[in-house]
Design brief:
The protein is mainly α. 52% of the residues lie in helices and 2% in strands.
């Protein structure tokens, strides 16, 4: 796969990061830990690092995390080559080297430096943003692997074999990061440096970063809400402080328009093209039900029987074009969360249904569906069953569609059991990622043992 565009700023940052070393394993990045020619990290301004961290997060989530989970969740499918093996749950630990390495190296290690530099310079805005990104990155790791290194990570040559932090404890760490982030973002008016255009996600708008922090907290609470009305109530409290429209959506837009800065799905389809979209179980479901999203998620065949998208693989432009976004958390997801949380706290079907219908509407509006088609779809699909458990399942089934290609769909399915998916092969679907071979090789004493794809070992998976 081609990497996202690396500009001069990234090269400066990479020099520092490489020689700080990666704490999770000995690798190419830790072969040397001292470079007399590398600039002191304290001399680097936060703006230089922020754009690199954001782009790396977008590329990391939109790459293997998105591909693996979309195949497992049957939002996409494959019968050929490597993707065909993944669709049939044939994974090895080596398959997870890349997403693990990208998350730890390109995102979290760089982001750790951003936190340290921002705090050292008294830049609360950058420090707050960096903590929001760190919490989101940790969530991505924990929700797919469970226990992972954090408290002893990022120490370079001081510790090549960090211990693994408990997944539940890491949720507490995320809450702490977000609480500190919110406080810093509220106290950034006197910062010596303030975020601007290098912040691709929000353009330096700290109010929106604060909303994003509350959105992550809401997601963390809803993950723990099964059988726990207090967690559901906490989710509602955070949602009330978060996004209020699609304009608040947290996403990374690959807007460079060049091959080297292209959306990761575009790059994959250009080079591999062994993942299918229209004939996946979700694609066939949308087509059979005349869902307007079918023609947005997929592209039609021409008279010669070829797909009409730029990469000729059948993926729609909204998520598959060269400049398509990678979505982190969006307003429609929060509305579905709110519907679920109301069902888990009060069982009020009417109140939940209002949020459920709004969630569908906001998703369709975001995708550019015409108002008349939205009204028709909501009229046909906007009513919830009168039994709470059935209503939760229906909310989750719509949220699953709205979370197209987002790894959160994998978490949603594991939490709720909805939608009901038939295994592509055998009698069960994987419930987690394997620990990568690099960790087994270099940090084997600390890697949790007897982990399989099918073990529901993440604490909220019950």
């Amino acid at each position: 796969m081609k990497n996202i565009n690396r500009n001069k700023s990234f090269l400066i940052v990479a020099t520092v990061i490489i020689f700080l070393g990666i704490s999770c394993k000995k690798s190419f990045y830790t072969d040397a830990n001292t470079n007399l020619n590398a600039p002191d990290s304290a001399s680097i301004v936060p703006s230089v690092i922020l754009s690199t961290v954001e782009g790396s997060l977008g590329y990391t989530q939109g790459g293997d995390f998105s591909r693996y989970t979309s195949l497992l969740m049957q939002q996409t499918s494959s019968t050929s080559r490597q993707a065909g093996a993944y669709y049939q749950y044939i994974f090895t630990s080596q398959d997870f080297d890349s997403p693990w390495g990208n998350l730890y190296t390109s995102v979290m290690q760089n982001n750790k430096v951003l936190i340290e530099i921002s705090d050292g310079k008294g830049d609360n805005g950058y420090g707050g943003i960096a903590r929001v990104i760190m919490a989101y990155s940790l969530e991505l790791g924990v929700d797919n692997w469970g226990a992972i290194p954090y408290s002893q990570a990022f120490m370079g040559s001081k510790n090549y074999q960090p211990t693994y932090d408990n997944d539940k404890a890491l949720y507490d760490t995320m809450f702490n990061l977000l609480n500190v982030a919110i406080a810093k973002l509220a106290n950034a008016s006197a910062d010596p440096e303030t975020p601007g255009s290098e912040d691709v996600i929000y353009g330096g708008d700290l109010t929106k970063w604060t909303k994003f922090a509350h959105a992550i907290k809401a997601r963390l609470y809803i993950h723990q809400s099964k059988g726990d009305p207090i967690m559901a109530a906490n989710a509602l409290s955070e949602i009330a402080q978060s996004f209020t429209s699609n304009a608040d959506n947290a996403q990374y837009l690959f807007s460079g328009g060049t091959e080297t800065s292209a959306n990761p799905w575009y790059q994959f389809n250009e080079q591999r093209g062994d993942i299918a979209f229209d004939i996946s179980p979700l694609g066939m479901q949308l087509k059979a039900s005349n869902d307007p999203r079918y023609t947005i998620f997929t592209t039609p065949l021409d008279a010669n029987g070829d797909y009409t998208d730029v990469n000729v693989v059948g993926m729609g432009d909204y998520y598959g074009s060269i400049s398509a976004p990678v979505e982190f958390i969006t307003y429609d997801e929060l509305l579905f969360m709110s519907a679920e949380a109301k069902l888990r706290t009060t069982g009020n079907i009417s109140a939940a249904q209002a949020d459920y219908r709004s969630g569908i509407t906001m998703n369709l509006e975001k995708l550019g569906v015409a108002s008349a088609a939205i009204n028709t779809y909501v009229a046909a699909n906007g009513s919830l069953p009168l039994v709470v458990d059935d209503a939760i399942a229906k909310v989750a089934s719509q949220e699953y569609i709205a979370l197209y290609l987002n790894p959160e769909a994998f978490t949603l399915w594991r939490r709720t059991g909805s939608p009901v998916l038939a295994p592509a092969i055998g009698n069960k679907i994987p419930r987690r990622f394997l620990y990568p071979e690099t960790e087994v090789s270099y940090n084997g004493a600390n890697v949790p043992k007897s982990v399989t794809l099918y073990a529901p070992t993440i604490f909220w998976d019950k």
